Amino acid sequence: MDIYRIRPGTQVDLRQWDPDDKSAFEGGKSEGQKAVEKLNCRLEVLQELLYAEGKHKVLVVLQAMDTGGKDGVIRHVFDGVNPQGVRVASFKAPTPEELAHDYLWRIHKHTPGKGEMVIFNRSHYEDVLVVRVHNLVPPDVWGRRYAHINDFERMLAEEGTTILKFFLHISKDEQKARLQARLDEPDKRWKFNVGDLGERALWDEYMRAYEVVLSETSTEWAPWYIVPANRKWYRDLVISEVLVQTLESLNMRYPQPKENLDEVVIE
Ligand code: ATP
Ligand code: MG
Fold this sequence. Notes:
Layout: H1 29-53, E1 57-64, H2 70-77, E2 86-90, H3 96-99, H4 105-108, E3 117-121, H5 130-133, H6 139-143, H7 145-158, E4 161-169, H8 172-184, H9 195-201, H10 203-216, E5 224-228, H11 232-248
Parallel strand pairs: 1-3, 1-4, 2-3, 4-5
Helix pairs in contact: 1-11, 2-11
The structure holds adenosine-5'-triphosphate and magnesium ion.
């Protein structure tokens, strides 16, 4: 899955990244789904270990265009993980109070504590994506933010946070099909947001903004992965695999009991 990790200093051209790619897995959909289930079980154990050890903090950032599958990842990849140890923070358009502060203010308070795993459903990256595409602040203001973000994430990493960032990469055609399905299927209509069509019209501008994000903010301490996301099962597989591998590399251990328990007799 390392082929999807962006090396620092890479200039990303998203046209070179195939949203249909599935080259890191030999099998097809049903084998892929089975592999995800197995990884779910590993993740469940690793998350318990994370919580028990209470040492590391894990932050997973999800960014995507509308219908890109952030919700699907949260449902499938974290299926079975104890909800007590995992938290999702969703970032929508900022409130007046949030806008009155710097853009990282609302973000920082949702970062994980020791033993915790937090998933960001959208993130501080919106402040260089939607904000840049819609000119919500002048270019010199958003232009400085890439460096802020790298510094902010470096600070989090140095203070014990493991950061993984995933861009769910779908094609414009796939987005069309998913939006159409939301229109056509009565049970999906509630998800249809007319506003998404306005953002879709700005697809190319968003792709350019994502390319700058991926080029400027993939660091040793907080790497970006470009996840081929046209196939939902493959998207889930890539993210599950990266997450499990990363947690395994932390070499976590259950803490030693505080007293010698060998002598304990329960009457
Ligand atoms: P879904 O549509 O799948 O429920 P979503 O993440 O698209 O999930 P919405 O409520 O539709 O949720 O959209 C949130 C909106 O908030 C997005 O259009 C996003 O660009 C916007 N947003 C998030 N952060 C900021 C920000 N800092 N400044 C301006 N807009 C933002
Ligand atoms: Mg939306």
